[in-house]
Amino acid sequence: MIFTHGVWQNVFKGYPFQYGKVEIKDDAWLPWHVFVMPGVTIGKGATIAGGSVVTSNIPDFCLAGGVPAKIIREGNYPKQLGLNEKGNLAKDVLADFERYFTGFIGNKSLRIKELQDHSLVLTSDIGNVVYVDEAKNEIIGNNDLKSVSGFDLMSFIIPPALKEKLNWIEIETEKRSTNLNKLSTELVQFLGRYGVRVTDD
Predict the structure, then answer these.
(1) Which end of the chain is more exposed for a tag (fewer CB within 10 A), N or C?
(2) Predicted confidence band at 115 (pLDDT cuts at 50, 70, 90)?
C-alpha cells in the first residue's frame, strides 16, 4: 500500500500529518504487505522484505525490511555473477524448463543434449534452441550443430553478425528477435518465472 498522505484524525487536536510524493525507481521490488509512507523514495534495484513499513528513503541496490524498514544488506546487492555462475544457473533453468515442458505441458518430445563446448541443444517437435554461454560467430559452422535443423540461439550477449543470420534470445539485454520458433516462444515465457522479461528488439 502506497500512501501520499498520512492524516485521518484532526490535526487541530494535535494529531500528526504528512504529505509527500512517493517515488519507486526501476527494478525495485515490493512484495506482499509492504506499506510505503508519504515522501519516501525507493531506489533503483532495491528489494523490500514482505510485511515492511517504509518510512524513510531506501538507497539503490539494497535489501531493506522491518517495521520501520531498515537496510539489511547493501554494497554487493544483488550479488554480481560471473560468466561461469551465469552459465551454471542458465543450465539449471533449462533443466527446469525441460521438466515443465514435458511434465506440466505434457509435450514429451523435448530433449536436452550437452555438447563438448558446454553448449546445450534443446530439440522438440515444435523447434530447436541452442544455448551457449558465449555466442561466437563460429557457431554457424559448428560440426555438432549440423544435424540440428533451423535452430534459434540463446546466449547472454550475441554478436550483431549472428543476430543477422539467426533468430535469437539475448539474456543480458532481455531482448529477442521477432520470428522465434514455438519452442523458443515457450522458453521466453518460462524465463519470466526467473524475472527475465524478454521483449522484442
Answers:
(1) N
(2) confident
